[in-house]
Write a structure and sequence with these properties.
Chain lengths: 116, 115
């Protein structure tokens, strides 16, 4: 059973370009979470999605960032007009959500974004 | 609101010594607590979780943690450190708030194991 898949693992963009990060959850999981890890910091929650729905986007920056989880295909985190401060590791996690807060979130290997 | 404080951003122990990584939490709802481990350039792996059953939780790789409500703590311990335990450890809290079970992480503790 494959784990959470993220691609690309490393992404380099110049300032002003767009970055698209992809996340395929574990088989059977319909809940996806995105987190960002800045250097020397813990992970910060960004957004929580179910298929075709955004449940909680309280951690998303108001501008340039968006996320989706379509009925078919991976979840996408999109960053428009990237700036140097967007350089970070972005992690996706998925869960079954059998029992709300006790559910385990399984993490992918992350995408390391570098903005030049 | 929920938060986690991990005391000590770096902890160094000798191989075979006790490992103690500290975590204190704050939560306005009954907390669910987690410890994750991150090896360099990898994702996070769940070590153990507390879900209001037993207060002493056993996890993988010989780690365990004890939930102490009176101290709002969830410290991680291992009786004897191995070289392979060198990694960064994150404590996290979650609790149902508005239907979102997002994890709130501490800043992490880097564990070094000396031969």
């Amino acid at each position: 059973n494959a784990g959470v898949m993220q691609n690309p693992r490393h992404l380099v963009r110049r300032r002003g370009q767009e970055a698209r990060l992809r996340c395929s959850p574990m088989k059977g999981h319909s809940h996806v979470y995105w987190y960002r890890q800045l250097p020397e910091e813990g992970l910060k929650f960004m957004v929580y999605l179910q298929k075709e729905n955004i449940i909680d986007e309280s951690g998303m920056p108001k501008e340039r960032f968006s996320a989706e989880f379509p009925k078919e295909g991976p979840s996408i985190l999109r960053i428009q007009q990237v700036v140097r401060g967007d350089s970070a590791a972005y992690f996706c996690a998925s869960s079954l959500r059998l029992a709300a807060s006790t559910d385990t979130q399984y993490f992918g290997p992350g995408t390391r974004l570098t903005v030049l | 609101a929920q938060s986690v404080t991990q005391l000590g951003s770096h902890v160094s122990v000798s191989e075979g010594a006790l490992v103690l990584l500290r975590c204190n939490y704050s939560s306005s709802v009954p907390p669910y607590l987690f410890w994750y481990v991150q090896y360099p350039n990898q994702g996070l792996q769940l070590l153990l979780k507390y879900t209001s059953a037993a207060t002493l939780v056993k996890g993988i790789n010989g780690f365990e943690a004890e939930f102490k409500k009176s101290e709002t703590s969830f410290h991680l311990t291992k009786p004897s450190a191995h070289m392979s335990d060198a990694a960064e450890y994150f404590c996290a809290v979650s609790g149902t708030q508005g239907g979102s079970e997002k994890l709130v992480f501490g800043k992490g503790t880097k564990l070094t194991v000396n031969p």
